[in-house]
Amino acid sequence: MNHILCKLNRFYVILTDGPGKPSIVLTPNKSSFYVGEDVKFLCVSDSNPPGNITWSFLPFNHSKETIVSSGEDELKLKDIQLENAGNYICTANNEICKNNNAVVINVKEPLEKNRTTIFSCDQCDQFEKCHNKKPGNTKRFIKLYLGY
Fold first, then answer.
1. Measuring CA to CA, which residue among 106, 99, 89 is closest to residue 39?
2. CA distances to 25, 27, 57, 61, 121 from 31, in Å
3. For a designed S-S bond to 43, which of 78, 90, 96, 104 qualifies (C-beta 3.0 to 4.6 A apart)?
4. Do 118 and 146 touch, CB atoms closer than 8 A?
5. CA nearest neighbour of 66 among 79, 78, 54, 57
6. Would the pTM count as exceeding 0.90?
7. Which of 81-85, 95-99, 108-112, 133-137 is the most confident on average?
């Protein structure tokens, strides 16, 4: 009886690829925020080997990006202010290549809930008793908003 001995050789194939265009998830999922809100950005990118994530910020009316976070797929902003409005860029890179994606957020002042409108004459500071209050003479009145 003849025995046949088979030797099994194992081959490993390692596939490498660079990161594709990352996806950005905003929480809460909106593009306009009020001053004082919190915002969370999540950058999702698949690659082998895994990519390194870098977050950059490009404010409106500026031409230079600033790196705000490196090595983290999540970026959190607490108590945002008007100067936080702009472009947030997620860059994923490994030794194969790099790719990025951006999201724009707008920041605005909160609405005043209790606002009173008062009209006042620009000459005598009166409205009800103003002597200049005549039909067609509305240019002299100033509209004031009082929030409390």
1. 106
2. 11, 10, 15, 18, 40
3. 90
4. yes
5. 57
6. no
7. 81-85
Percent of the chain with pLDDT over 90: 45
Q: Give CATH 2.60.40.10 domain extents, the chain.
A: 23-108
- The residues, ordered by sequence, that sit 6+ positions from 109 with a Cβ below 8 Å of its Cβ are 34, 35, 82
Can you tell me which residue has the tokens 């929480």?
Answer: 27
* HEC profile of 13-54: CCCCECCCCCEEEEECCCCEEECCCCEEEEEECCCECCCEEE
For 78, the token pair is 């607490």
23-108 CATH choice from 3.30.10.20, 1.25.40.10, 2.60.40.10, 3.40.50.80: 2.60.40.10
Q: How far apart are CA 49 and CA 19, in angstroms?
A: 9
